Amino acid sequence: MVWAFAAALAVAAFCGLSILLITVFDMVFHKRGRSLRPVRAFDIAIGIALAVPSLIQLSALLDQLWPVGG
Questions:
Q1: Calpha distance 40→45 (Å, rounded)
Q2: What is the DSSP code (8-state) at residue 68?
């Protein structure tokens, strides 16, 4: 079950990071008006909400599976 949980965390982290990367790419290369600011803010919030907790939990889980220092 641990590997299924780790896989789900990895997928969630990948999705969150993908949302953030796509949003940043869109902001840099496609200058749009103020009408899309709420949408971009929502995308950034959802990307962070998916990526950060998933990466923190995945890191803790991997530390339990493969302790580095001993």
A1: 9
A2: S
Q: Is-above-0.70 flag for pTM?
A: yes
Are 15 and 52 in contact by the 8 Å Cβ rule? The answer is no
CA-CA-CA-CA torsion sign (50, 21, 10, 8):
positive
Chain segment 42-67, per-residue pLDDT in tens? 999 999 999 999 999 999 998 888 88
The string over 38-52, giving b where at least 16 C-beta atoms fall within 10 Å of a residue's C-beta and e elsewhere, is eeeeebeeebeebbe
Tokens 């530390």 correspond to: 63
